């Protein structure tokens, strides 16, 4: 019996399950459309949404000196393996530099290059802001704040589920 079937038998309203199904399917569609339309917004700069996320992470004040590959992977919530190919392409294109950590030679530090910073600040960021304006055109500031609040709640619950699965081998057999 699946987890959904157990919830139905336990008395969870079918309407709530249907709404959850629609919500998560729409999140899936939004993620796909973000990749498609977001990449199109910055393609003239030679960037994708994944590269946009890396440059955005590295542009933060607390990342001025760069970030370890592990910290960057955790911040972006991707695996190191998925990040490795992306970082190689970005290094090849001159957006970032990857160097050994002077404090821990086993670790590598990723930092934006001057060229990457210029691409981010002067070329990509204005297009990203225009993209945000187009996508959120029908949203008030209040709507956007509420949406962010609910997405953060979903993210926190997913992170809790992920942490539980990582520490509980029985959780992997739940379905």
Automatic annotation (TrEMBL):
Residues 20-156 form the HTH marR-type domain. The keyword Metal-binding does not apply. The keyword NAD does not apply. InterPro entries: HTH_MarR-typ, MarR/SlyA-like, Tscrpt_reg_MarR-type_CS, WH-like_DNA-bd_sf, WH_DNA-bd_sf. GO terms for biological process: response to stress. It holds the Pfam family MarR_2. Keywords: DNA-binding, Transcription, Transcription regulation. It comes from the Bacteria. GO terms for molecular function: DNA binding; DNA-binding transcription factor activity. Transmembrane segments: none annotated. This is MarR family transcriptional regulator. The lineage of its organism: Bacteria, Pseudomonadati, Pseudomonadota, Alphaproteobacteria, Hyphomicrobiales.
């Amino acid at each position: 019996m699946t987890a959904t079937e157990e919830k139905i038998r336990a008395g969870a309203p079918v309407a709530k399950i249907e709404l959850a199904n629609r919500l998560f399917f729409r999140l899936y569609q939004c993620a796909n459309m973000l990749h498609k339309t977001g990449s199109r917004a910055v393609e003239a700069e030679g960037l994708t949404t994944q590269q946009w996320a890396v440059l955005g992470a590295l542009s933060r004040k607390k990342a001025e000196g760069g970030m370890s590959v592990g910290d960057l992977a955790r911040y972006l919530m991707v695996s190191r393996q998925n990040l490795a190919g992306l970082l190689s392409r970005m290094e090849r294109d001159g957006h970032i530099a990857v160097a050994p950590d002077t404090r821990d030679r086993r670790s590598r530090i990723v930092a934006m290059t001057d060229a990457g910073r210029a691409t981010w600040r002067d070329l990509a960021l204005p297009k990203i802001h225009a993209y945000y304006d187009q996508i959120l055109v029908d949203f008030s500031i209040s709507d956007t704040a509420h949406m962010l609040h609910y997405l953060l709640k979903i993210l926190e619950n997913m992170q809790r589920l992920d942490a539980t699965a990582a520490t509980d081998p029985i959780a992997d057999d739940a379905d």
